[in-house]
Write a sequence for this structure.
């Protein structure tokens, strides 16, 4: 029903939905610069769906289609980054302020014109992205092999691409009822066919419920449908719901009272003197002149992207294997330098436009490159190979002795116990000479030395404190103890 309102925005669910396309485009822009294989594969796929001018010779058409595909992919990736990064930033700020319902956000923007301008700018950037996806969708869907013959695909001298049903071919080969060719022929019957986005997607969804029909679409076609559907769901919530209709009314009031003029820094990253306002198109521009600034910025950036000419390098990449990651890095560094320089020439403030479109600073040491990715992957593979081919080392077994370990009481060497008997002393008598007494005077008794016994130690009972009087070692013992004193 025309004019019917859809349910109000689920702010928590919308915030989660924004994270996916933002992460996706960030990863994609990095992969383009680090993975030549993936970039070339995607470029070739996109070249088959790209419509180029008819004036190119047949032998140059494929290389020209690849170059145009690269330019087109860069342009729409920057529009994606601008739309989803602004949406993610604003949603996060609103959530931090506790504004996470339609009622609370509407109450805030009614009293805060700057916040109103930021919300309007966010919606305008996603609306612009939706328009570009809407123009890209027919080109991609009708490029599929089974569908292509039913349509006329050409680019006008103005640069616009058109896709319309080939009535003559359809008469000769009528498409089957409810087939994907039949549905698309109805959608793109004339160049003026403008269908509401939900109707567009709903008709395609019905057709691909048949597995045989679904197989006619390529992976690129499904990716484009998904990107378009995310943008449509977002913009419908901010234009067709009760919140969206109130938002539209507030924006128009701001345009009338002139307060919207201060919103330009939110709407565009370009110098206002270099961006001219386009004519208001009521059937397209829901927010009037506010939305027009975003549209002009997208068109101006399109001319920057299509001014890049790397046809020779791109042709070399897609047709030969004579290039490596060094040449690939040179290509992207050159492209990034051109984009960065053009952004500086058009920006309204230092770094504003580069930040808006997610450009890579060519002088940044951390800028992603294929060479760095190659070395990082090589290091990883070397580590994996080391783990796979490293010889197994058996740990040394601890030494176990076969000799029993002595207990502490047995580990100290002990002398044999001494007996308690007194040593026997044999006295050899000598013959006395004349006039001498046979008895020698006894030696003076030894002076007994006091023995200090530690308090904690008990004296050994087997060791006599004093030797007997006149006690001597026998001769054999003396000879054994002092062999050097014996006579020869």
């Amino acid at each position: 029903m025309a004019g019917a309102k859809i349910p109000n925005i689920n702010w928590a669910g919308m915030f989660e939905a924004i994270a996916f396309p933002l992460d996706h485009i960030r990863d994609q822009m990095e992969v383009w610069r680090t993975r030549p294989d993936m970039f070339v594969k995607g470029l070739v796929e996109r070249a088959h769906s790209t419509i180029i001018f008819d004036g190119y010779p047949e032998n140059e058409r494929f290389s020209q289609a690849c170059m145009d595909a690269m330019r087109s992919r860069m342009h729409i990736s920057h529009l994606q980054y601008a739309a989803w990064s602004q949406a993610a930033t604003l949603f996060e700020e609103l959530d931090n302020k506790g504004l996470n319902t339609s009622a609370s956000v509407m109450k805030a923007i009614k009293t805060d014109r700057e916040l109103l301008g930021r919300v309007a700018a966010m919606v305008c950037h996603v609306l612009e992205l939706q328009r570009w996806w809407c123009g890209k969708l027919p080109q991609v869907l009708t490029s599929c092999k089974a569908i292509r013959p039913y349509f006329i695909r050409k680019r006008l001298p103005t640069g616009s691409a058109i896709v319309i049903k080939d009535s003559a071919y359809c008469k000769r080969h009528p498409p089957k009822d409810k087939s994907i060719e039949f549905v698309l022929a109805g959608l793109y019957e004339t160049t003026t066919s403008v269908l509401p986005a939900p109707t567009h997607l709903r008709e395609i969804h019905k057709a691909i419920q048949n597995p045989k029909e679904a197989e006619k679409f390529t992976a690129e076609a499904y990716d484009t449908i998904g990107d378009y559907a995310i943008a449509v769901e977002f913009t419908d919530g901010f234009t067709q719901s009760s919140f969206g209709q109130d938002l539209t009314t507030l924006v128009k009031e701001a345009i009338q009272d002139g307060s919207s003029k201060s919103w330009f820094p939110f709407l565009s990253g370009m110098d206002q003197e270099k961006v001219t306002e386009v004519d208001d198109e009521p059937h397209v521009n829901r927010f009037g002149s506010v939305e027009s600034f975003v549209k002009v910025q997208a068109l101006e950036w399109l001319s920057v992207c299509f001014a890049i000419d790397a046809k020779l390098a791109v042709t070399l990449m897609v047709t030969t294997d004579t290039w490596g990651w060094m040449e690939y890095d040179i290509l992207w560094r050159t492209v990034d330098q051109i984009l960065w320089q053009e952004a500086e020439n058009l920006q309204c403030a230092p770094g504003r436009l580069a930040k808006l479109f997610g450009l890579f600073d060519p002088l940044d040491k951390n800028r992603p490159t294929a060479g760095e990715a190659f070395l990082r992957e090589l290091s990883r593979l070397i580590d994996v190979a080391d783990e796979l081919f490293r010889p197994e080392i058996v740990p040394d077994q601890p030494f176990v002795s076969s000799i029993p370990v002595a207990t502490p009481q047995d580990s100290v060497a002990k002398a044999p116990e001494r007996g308690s008997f007194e040593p026997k002393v044999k006295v050899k008598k000598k013959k006395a000479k004349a006039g001498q007494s046979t008895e020698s005077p006894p030696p003076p008794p030894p002076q007994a030395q006091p023995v200090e016994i530690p308090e904690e130690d008990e004296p050994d009972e087997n060791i006599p404190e004093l030797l007997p009087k006149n006690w001597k070692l026998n001769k054999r013992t003396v000879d054994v103890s002092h062999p050097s004193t014996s006579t020869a």
Summary: The first helix runs from residue 11 to 34.
